[in-house]
Amino acid sequence: MQKIINVLAVASAAVSVAVVGLGGYVYLNREAIIEDVKEKAFGSIGGALGGGGLGGDLPIGAPDLASPTPQASAPQAPSPAPSGGLGIPNF
């Protein structure tokens, strides 16, 4: 029984050391990790857009979605009452 407890204690210590070591590695190299992730993200965005800068061969605007008929104008707001009040209707 004592051997099982010793094996569990050694395994627990190994896991604790691994977690602390990995945390220290990430903390010390956080700037490099962030820059690497940014490069990969911007690289994948650039590849999706045709390998160049923004735009590339993509069309600008949507002329095929334009309405063939003129739009109706927005309704006009009623003129304010000449009473000079707060616009509360009188009953």
Mind explaining what this structure looks like?
With 91 residues, this protein is mainly α. It has a domain at 2-54. The protein has helices at 2-28, 30-48. The longest helix is centred in the first third of the chain and has 27 residues, at 2-28.
Describe the secondary-structure layout.
Blueprint: H1 2-28, H2 30-48
Gist?
The protein contains two helices and no strands. The chain has helices at residues 2-28, 30-48.
The major β-sheet equals: none
Please tally the helical runs, counting DSSP H or I stretches of 4 or more residues. 2
Give the N-to-C terminal Cα separation.
93 Å
Element order: H for helix, E for strand: HH
Helix % is 40-55%
What spatial form do the alpha-carbon principal axes imply?
A: elongated
Uncertain runs: none
Alpha-beta classification: mainly alpha
Please identify the oligomeric state.
single chain
Strand content: under 5%
Number of strands: 0
Radius of gyration: 34 Å
The pLDDT mean sits at 77
Primary descriptors:
elongated, 0% strand, 91 residues, mainly alpha, 51% helix
